[in-house]
Specification:
The complex is a heterodimer of chains A (460) and B (320).
Chain A (H helix, E strand, L loop, with lengths): L1 H25 L37 E6 L6 H6 L2 H7 L2 E6 L3 H10 L6 E4 L2 H9 L8 H10 L2 H6 L1 E2 L2 E2 L2 E7 L2 E4 L1 H7 L7 H13 L3 E3 L11 H14 L2 H8 L8 H14 L14 H4 L14 E5 L21 E4 L9 E12 L4 H10 L2 H9 L21 H11 L3 E5 L7 H16 L4 H11 L3
Parallel strand pairs in A: 1-2, 1-3, 8-9, 11-12
Antiparallel strand pairs in A: 3-11, 4-5, 6-11, 7-9, 7-10
Chain B lengths: L2 H26 L5 H33 L13 H8 L1 H32 L5 H9 L6 H11 L12 H8 L13 H27 L3 H9 L4 H30 L2 H6 L9 H11 L3 H31 L1
The chains are: A alpha/beta (460), B mainly alpha (320).
Amino acid sequence: MRSRNTRRGLAVAAALATGLVLAGCASSDSGGGDAVSGTWPGDGKAECKGLEQLADFGDLSGKEISVYTSIVAPEDKPHIDSWKLFTTCTGATPKYEGSKEFETQLKVRVQAGNPPDIAYVPQPGLLQTLVGTGKVVEAPSQVSDNTDKWFGEDWKAYGSVDGKFYAAPLGANVKSFVWYSPKMFSDNGWDVPKTWDDMLALSDKIAATGIKPWCAGIESGEATGWPATDWLEDVLLRSAGPDVYDQWVSHDIPFNDPKVADALDEVGGILKNDKYVNGGIGDVSSIATTAFQDGGLPILDGKCAMHRQASFYAANWPEGTDVSENGDVFAFYLPTMSEEFGNPVLGGGEFVTAFSDRPEVQAFQTYLSTDVWANEKAKASPNGGWVSANKGLDINNLASPIDQLSGEILQDPNAVFRFDGSDQMPAEVGAGSFWKEMTNWITGESTKDALDNIESSWPS
Amino acid sequence: MSTGEKFAQMFIAIALFFVVVAVILLLTQRMRSRTGEVVQAAAFVLPAVALILLGLLYPAVTSIYQSLFDQTGSNFIGLDNYKTVFTDSEQLTVLRNTAAWVILVPLFSTAIGLIYAVLVDRSRFEKFARALIFLPMAISLVGASIIWKFVYDYKDSSQTQIGIANAVLKGLGLDTYKFILNDPWNTLFLIIVLIWVQTGFAMTILSASIKAIPDDIVEAARLDGVGGVKMFRYITIPSIRPALIVVLTTICITTLKAFDIVRTMTGGNFNTSVLSYQFYREYFISTNQGLATAIATVIFLLVMPIVVYNVRQMRKLEAR
């Protein structure tokens, strides 16, 4: 009995094994190396006007492109909607996949030899790491041409590594904003400041009325401190200019350079000034324990007048808040300190990184780099919260007033765009000591000690 | 890799397992002698031992080896990382905090759990009362941390409070307090969270143990005129001693590994970091492999004696 059972078990196991090995072989498919063939399905279609570049890739009907991003539901819908035109004009279908663990998972997938066709990479630093693995494919000439045409030189540089252009910019956000209440300002007869000195004069004026003019919060769990790094970057751009900023980010000048110390002291003049902060919350040190999402909310209660935070802070106002020029809250451009450096804009954005050079993937990259897509995306985002630095983007297609303002700032010919510096520094600094020391700095550490500690943590 | 391929691989793995087991059975079933039994036993135990060697021992040894190297793992620097762990002022704060956690959490959780178990034992609301204290166990540590973060929320005394702790202080006419920020007391406020969670565990085990005390012992003690505190001191405690030790050591090990609370509530800022969080931070954020593995080794060395002691007590408990 026992031996018969064993034998039957063996036979079943063997049969299973053989069958499955065969099945395993059958499912491996071929990829890459397809030649361009056929006429593009968009030929002659009215809606495909402006996308003639896609004709270079021929008929792509039935082809699929896997797209991997950090944007999850419900914000993924506008993206998927904006691709319909691509399917109409080429026949190929992009497949969307979003993950909150994008940054870690993407590295894992690339290392495991299982990368997506396209990834929306939100940091130039991460792009460099990915290019370092040798798996990233250079952008085709169409994408390069479009980037030259529709984006500035500065944007193209952030998508390049060692002089080679890999990734075209996609969306953007503007960080150089000060949120305020237009109602509160007009009730009190305050004007939106146009220069840095005006802003400080206004702060004094507000402080004299008994209201603390500024509120802030830098608590963000493990990332606690990042809003303070944005403050320093924004001020350094204004006080020392974009060139010094670039040298500082790439560590050509030390992190604790006297110019950086001056900029941080300037920030301290606001954030560590007990007369100025922390409106509606507490004293200076309460900045460190206030969640960044809550940092600007006292503006709605009239307990705080100004809050410096990026355009995406628009999503943090409670439902029903009127975010517009004459509404409950709006933002003004963080003023410049001098005419010398134009209008510096600190911001962020994503880059379309490809891990395959199949024609449908290149066609999709091309589509995303056009002005047509930028406008499609704007129209597909009826609730706003999206903007691009694409110069072909019609501001009127943007849904919300704050997006329109961001769009105007990004397209301003005087604008000097600089990417968030901490996203470009090595992780030890950009996601480690910079955050940590800025938090310590808020809770009492001196400017010199904070900058010295970050400098000493820079990997040699 | 598509889902289909993943399934295919899974089935192949399962089939392989069957094949291996079948082969072992086939090869060993003919041996009937005494040595045959040894061979049979070895054939089944050895694969498990090999997996333990591969999955546990090998990484442990590699970690210890790596802890002797520098940041990138390329240059041998001897015991320098351990010197940093025990001399650097930031790391010393981490050690101080870890000590506070490991001493306070087991003591308080066990003490509160024990007293509670004795008090509700055989009372009318016993089940309800036990469920009440056991509930926090059902919440993940991250969830508990988020709840307590709200409890400790700080606003200046002049503002509307959203944290219940400060709302109470304000209601009493006192100044609001920065629970999360003020070093070193903030560590104590984080410790309270873990005590809140672990007390239920201590209570459950101890309660079961108390119920297992033979009735004749209790009755004999009663006849001798023992009651109340004396009963607790001379009958209950000695009878449940092994269970007490298991609870204390288990919570001790949990505490040494506790990292969720620190990560969620402070991110290690404001001098609240502990070894287990510092290890994560050094490895994954600061990418300092040498120092991180050194910290991991220190945790390993600290946990080891407790685990050995715990397992021995567990055996005693089962032998009874």
